[in-house]
Each structure stands twice: as C-alpha cells, then as structure tokens.
C-alpha cells in the first residue's frame, strides 16, 4: 500500500483573514501531486458527492462501484493480436502492477482492492503493430478489472481497449512506456445505454519515449475515464486526445492530469465534445503540473465543446501549476459554444440544407480527433459511429 500524507496544520488564527473551516482544521491540498493515494478502498471515506474529485459526478448512479464489493474475476474478452503483442493474465503480485500510478479516489481503490488477476498486454519489437482487446458481455454485476499495457524499450505499437454491451465496471489501466518506445493507446467506450464505466488510467513515460493516449466515449449512461500521465524521465512526450458525444440523459466525464517531473518533456492535451438532448452532460477537468525539476517543459492543454440543443451542460475546467520559471512554454484554453453562424451561412449559400450543414460542421469539429488515430479501419468505424449519433441530432 502506498499512501501520500498531507499537512493538517492550520495557520495562526486570524492570519491573513483565515479562520477554521466548519468541517474541521484541514488545509486544502494546494498541489495536484500531493493528493492522498492508496490501493486500499478502506483508506478512503465513503463518497458523498461533495469531494473535489466527485462534486461534478452523479455519485448515486454508481454507489455500488464506490462502496460495494466487486466481482474481480477475469472479464470476457475478444482479442485480435499481432506478432509482437502478447496478451495474458498475470497475478496480483506481479512486479509491474503499481508501477505507473496509485488510486487517488475511492472507485479506483475499490477496483484495485477487488481485482483477482490483471490483464497484461505487452508490446515488443520496433516494427508497427496493432492489437485490439474488447470487453463485452459483462452484464449488470458490479465488476472490478486491472489492465497493464507495457511497451518494451524502443518498441512501437498501437493498442485498442474497447467496451461494448451492458456493464457496471470500475477499472484501473496502467500504461508503462519504456525508454525510447512509441506507443498509442486508444480507449473506446461504445457501451449500451444502461452501462456505467469508471476508469482510471495511469501512465509512466520513460526517457525519450512517447505516448499517444486517445479516449473516445460515445456509449453508456455514465462514463468516467480519467487519464493520469507521469512524465518521469527526460525527453518524455505525451499527446492526450479525447472525443465524446453526450446524448440526452448521458453523463460523460474525463479528468486529465499531466505531471511534468523531468527536464525537456512535452505534453499536448486536446479534448473535443458535442452535446445534444435534454440532460446531456459532459465534464472535463484538465490538470497540468510542471514540477521544479521539469526545466525546458513544453505544455499546452485545451478543451472545446459544441452545444447542439437546449437542456445540456458542459463543465470545462483547465488548471495549470508551474513550479519552475525555466520552461519552453505552457498554456491552456477552454471554450463552449453553439454553431458558427458564418460556417452555416457559407454552406447553405452553396445549396446545402440547414440540417445537412449542421451535420457537416459537427462532423468536421469532431473528426479532427479521429483522424489522429492513424488506423484507417478504426477511423472509419468511429466516423460511422459519429454519423449515427449525428442522425439522432
């Protein structure tokens, strides 16, 4: 068990106008990296919805995943592998488990406490290769899962981790990118309308290694995928991309964290989403921490949301912490809005109907992310899925 403690001492009474909080003498965590961590669910208090990590989430919809006992048996998988990619189950005590990160909230810790074996996807070899692992047929039983994706030093590959059908799943995914490796991980959520999926992704990037991490969330009632990337060694690079389309009554959430912890590291975070229908909801929180040892950092994060109808809500919160002044650059941006009237006018002036013009604008807005996957077959499938969503819009 790994636990990060934090100070609970209050400043001198009345200092700078500070007074004790009604909940007790607790100083809020000031730095993202100082949050409490543990792999044991018992170390976390029950979820109330008032916690900073849960205050924008519909916690009542998944209380069984945060507090109840979870089935940690092996999940049903459909795999399509390639030479240089090994897929196997490993024991809980495997040395690789816990290498990339540790839970910061109760759902992640509950999954860690309850999983039986972990799924290992190991990429080796310097040639390009693609492997697909799809979880399906999980049913209504609350489940726990743990996956380790390991890219050997100087290896190259792309791993697609998908989900279809019904599910009530809480999982942790660890991504270990070895020195000089170049890995792409695509997490595709195409669950049924009743599914609930809570996922914490932890990535550790080695020296001069690169990770492209892509989250695509289209299906499910509540989907919460939180990627956390640790640029732990010099020259590490991460490109974190996300695409989501929230329909009526659907909650799609992603809390992204990038920790620059070594010199000359680079990160680019781009998440784009669309919302349509009464009660459609999206949440994006982007945290970037540039540590005091991360000189030469080059970082930028952005989130864009396109609102297609009334009755929707998009929360977009970028955060940037910088502990050293010797950086190449850092910035963040966030925007939520409706259609660009000039774009619609331009298309309609050329004989395109308003309905088709709107679909073209949305398609162009979202497919920017899809086109960066780099696999034609997967890009075509996701484009078709977006077309189906747009037909409903």
TrEMBL record:
Compositional bias (Polar residues): 1-10
GO process terms (BP): iron-sulfur cluster assembly
SUPFAM superfamilies per the UniProt record, alphabetical: Stabilizer of iron transporter SufD (SSF101960)
Region spans: Disordered: 1-24
InterPro entries: Fe-S_cluster_assembly_SufBD, SUF_FeS_clus_asmbl_SufBD_core, SUF_FeS_clus_asmbl_SufBD_sf, SUF_FeS_clus_asmbl_SufD
Residues covered by the SUF system FeS cluster assembly SufBD core domain: 143-365
Pfam families named among the record's database cross-references: SUFBD_core
Coiled-coil portions: none
Family stated for the protein in its record: Belongs to the iron-sulfur cluster assembly SufBD family.
PANTHER family linked to this entry: PROTEIN ABCI7, CHLOROPLASTIC
Protein's recorded name: Fe-S cluster assembly protein SufD
Organism of origin: Agromyces mediolanus
């Amino acid at each position: 068990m790994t636990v990060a403690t934090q100070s609970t001492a209050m400043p001198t009474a009345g200092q700078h106008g500070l007074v004790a909080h009604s909940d007790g003498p607790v100083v809020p965590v000031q730095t993202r990296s100082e949050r409490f961590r543990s792999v044991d669910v018992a170390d976390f208090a029950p979820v109330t919805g008032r916690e900073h990590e849960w205050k924008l989430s519909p916690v009542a919809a998944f209380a069984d995943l945060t507090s109840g006992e979870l089935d940690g048996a092996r999940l049903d998988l459909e795999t399509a592998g390639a030479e240089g990619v090994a897929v196997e189950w490993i024991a809980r005590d495997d040395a690789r488990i816990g290498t990339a990160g540790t839970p910061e909230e109760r759902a992640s810790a509950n999954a860690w406490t309850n999983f039986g074996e972990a799924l290992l996807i190991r990429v080796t070899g310097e040639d390009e290769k693609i492997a697909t692992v799809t979880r399906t047929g999980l049913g209504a039983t609350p489940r726990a899962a743990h996956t380790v994706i390991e890219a050997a030093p100087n290896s190259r590959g792309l791993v697609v981790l998908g989900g279809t059908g019904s599910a009530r799943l809480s999982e942790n995914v660890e991504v270990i990118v070895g020195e000089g490796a170049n890995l792409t991980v695509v997490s595709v959520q195409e669950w049924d309308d009743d599914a609930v999926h809570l996922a914490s992704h932890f990535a550790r990037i080695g020296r001069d290694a690169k990770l492209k991490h892509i989250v695509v969330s289209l299906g499910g009632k509540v989907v919460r995928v939180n990627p956390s990337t640790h640029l732990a060694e010099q020259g590490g690079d991460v490109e974190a991309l996300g695409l989501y389309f929230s329909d009526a009554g659907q909650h799609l959430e992603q809390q992204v964290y990038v920790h620059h912890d070594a010199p000359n590291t680079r990160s680019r975070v781009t998440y784009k989403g669309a919302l349509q229908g009464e009660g459609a909801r999206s949440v994006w929180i982007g945290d970037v921490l540039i540590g005091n040892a991360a000189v030469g950092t080059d970082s930028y994060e952005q989130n864009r949301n396109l609102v297609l109808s009334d009755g929707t809500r998009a929360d977009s919160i970028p955060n940037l912490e910088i502990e050293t002044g010797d950086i190449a650059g850092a910035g963040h941006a966030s925007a939520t809005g409706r259609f660009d009237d000039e774009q619609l006018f331009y298309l309609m002036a050329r004989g395109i109907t308003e309905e088709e013009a709107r679909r073209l604008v949305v398609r162009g807005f979202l497919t920017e992310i899809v086109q960066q996957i780099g696999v034609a077959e997967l890009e075509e499938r996701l484009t078709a899925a977006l077309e189906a969503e747009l037909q409903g819009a």
